[in-house]
Fold this sequence. Notes:
Bound molecules: ligand 6R9
Largest sheet: 8 strands, mixed
Number of helices: 22
Helix content: 25-40%
Mean pLDDT: 83
Number of strands: 35
Amino acid sequence: xxxxxxxxxxxxxxxxxxxxxxxxxxxxxxxxxxxxxxxxxxxxxxxxxxxxxxxxxxxxxxxxxxxxxxxxxxxxxxxxxxxxxxxxxxxxxxxxxxxxxxxxxxxxxxxxxxxxxxxxxxxxxxxxxxxxxxxxxxxxxxxxxxxxxxxxxxxxxxxxxxxxxxxxxxxxxxxxxxxxxxxxxxxxxxxxxxxxxxxxxxxxxxxxxxxxxxxxxxxxxxxxxxxxxxxxxxxxxxxxxxxxxxxxxxxxxxxxxxxxxxxxxxxxxxxxxxxxxxxxxxxxxxxxxxxxxxxxxxxxxxxxxxxxxxxxxxxxxxxxxxxxxxxxxxxxxxxxxxxxxxxxxxxxxxxxxxxxxxxxxxxxxxxxxxxxxxxxxxxxxxxxxxxxxxxxxxxxxxxxxxxxxxxxxxxxxxxxxxxxxxxxxxxxxxxxxxxxxxxxxxxxxxxxxxxxxxxxxxxxxxxxxxxxxxxxxxxxxxxxxxxxxxxxxxxxxxxxxxxxxxxxxxxxxxxxxxxxxxxxxxxxxxxxxxxxxxxxxxxxxxxxxxxxxxxxxxxxxxxxxxxxxxxxxxxxxxxxxxxxxxxxxxxxxxxxxxxxxxxxxxxxxxxxxxxxxxxxxxxxxxxxxxxxxxxxxxxxxxxxxxxxxxxxxxxxxxxxxxxxxxxxxxxxxxxxxxxxxxxxxxxxxxxxxxxxxxxxxxxxxxxxxxxxxxxxxxxxxxxxxxxxxxxxxxxxxxxxxxxxxxxxxxxxxxxxxxxxxxxxxxxxxxxxxxxxxxxxxxxxxxxxxxxxxxxxx
Length: 793
Ligand code: 6R9
């Protein structure tokens, strides 16, 4: 029995559609689960299409057909094949959306994938046709069927043959050892570091209290491990950092010897400015070599660095300086990114107006623009470095294994960013070893991680991991599409890059630019590809594999967090067969588990909260300046284990499928932004009474920001005001936090206790449908409902 409906891009019709599905379900005696699923599919897909087209006045036919045969329910969606929004839509002016883009509607399709038993997509006669099939078996598990992605890519034989870990058996054997006796395992690993004094105990822990200390009694200096020890070997004149500027012709190479000298000299400059062990230094620099030099110089003398992403605004910089009571700031006059000038000294000066603790500012000349210099406070990097009393060598400070190495701020859900504090020995060991395991690094490799050092990925896998391993790390100041969208491919060819590590958000943006940008570029040097920051959807995975990797490079999808220091879940490329969309298996010493709120429900392969049961050396030590917050944030929901805040499920092969964050942080291009931080920025505007921000799927950024704002009484609604509000947020937090859309609302939905119900707002943001009632009343979908609610609540 079959039935079709046509809808013409009107939200009111969705309601009718839902009623028609209910009628179809009644006539065919569909189970509650199948009805629910069909409805959810329609809601997620059709509404997303309409929401993205977003203009109710435009008519775009979407044909929906339902069919049932042998208890197999089919839902077929056909669009009219036209661009959905031929005029400039208010949401995303740059693109029109059709079913082709559905894969990018992250949340919608991910939920649908969980629920159905099959998806097929074709384009026929100018129409996009998507068919979804599900078996109507009452009581069938809901989340398990997310695993429609069944393609498996075993490691290429030649790759395995040349790798350090060559088979899944070898991985499993090592893994079992690492879990059975972690102290023996990590003790052996730590032999690979240079120590002033060996440790007395590998691990002292009370995980229930969120406490763990590694290599207790040991002493070392991180820079001795990243620099000095290589100078005694042939690596002395090996390129440590190859740098390329915003403009393709700008280039700089620092050998280990040269980097060592720069670091020592700048360490001496810091000392001259009165900086010593334990002092905090804030570094607000673009991606230039002075940034890693400054970080390592801090580490040389035991100062704690706090790198603030160069794209953050004056206000964010101010908060981060004040929070850790920084003594000294390092910034640039300005810099160009994608050819556009960023006046960073201006931002720094604005921030410093409210930071009395900063007595010294060291300014790197990068843009060569006029900037005001405050006589007693500001000085130039090049002049300081050239001073006659600055020596080429600097004795490394003897650091306790547990002494802090750096603070890195990350958005939490309570508004105030958290200063994640990492240790010296444990952090370094963890990033060094994971770098070798996951990226299978060899001495002759050119390694390129495209992240910004302002984020943890850059700290761990541009600076500390590669340098501790004696690798050559490529550092790039610019953006992927400047001067043209082939910049990455040009750079891979030019530097003969062997291993390339990027974020899905960048890959999606490049994929969108089209394949012609590959033309004429020889990417044959590539051996291995990596992904980090967000779930990589299978379609992007396949594109990455085929177009960038030429079908021959394994892809390592690496899951981890600022808090975890380094990668926790990811393939060993010579050993682990990959499944597109899965981060695969835990690394050595990492014991993850997926926990449900109700432990008695469902089987192992259902989704839930991803937690890590035992400590590992790279895990953060505490939140700077807030002794309780580490435990309160990560150890409260499930006592005794580290709760990551991400949802995940495990399949029958033990593979982890990360479903994104369960809390209310919005992940824009891999950068986590707290909704509370966004909301407090909005509310700080004179006209705003109340605000709520939610994430909406966005085809390039992963998530976009959709904000609801209630104006103060007497304030006039206007487009100008909306623009002013966006501008306000951008100034306060930074361009990355600019809301994609602001909707002025008379009232926000709230619970009785006054908490805003974001779940409803998310629904509205995605297309104004709230007709499902309470999803949790459906018992066999309860786990899913729980996840959805947590994700959206
Ligand atoms: C390294 C980094 C952490 C959050 C994390 C998760 C998401 C990171 C991922 C991934 C799916 C992956 N995330 N890697 N989700 N697959 N391979 O990004 O740190 O900025 O702290 O973000 O990013 O949600 O919890 P951070």
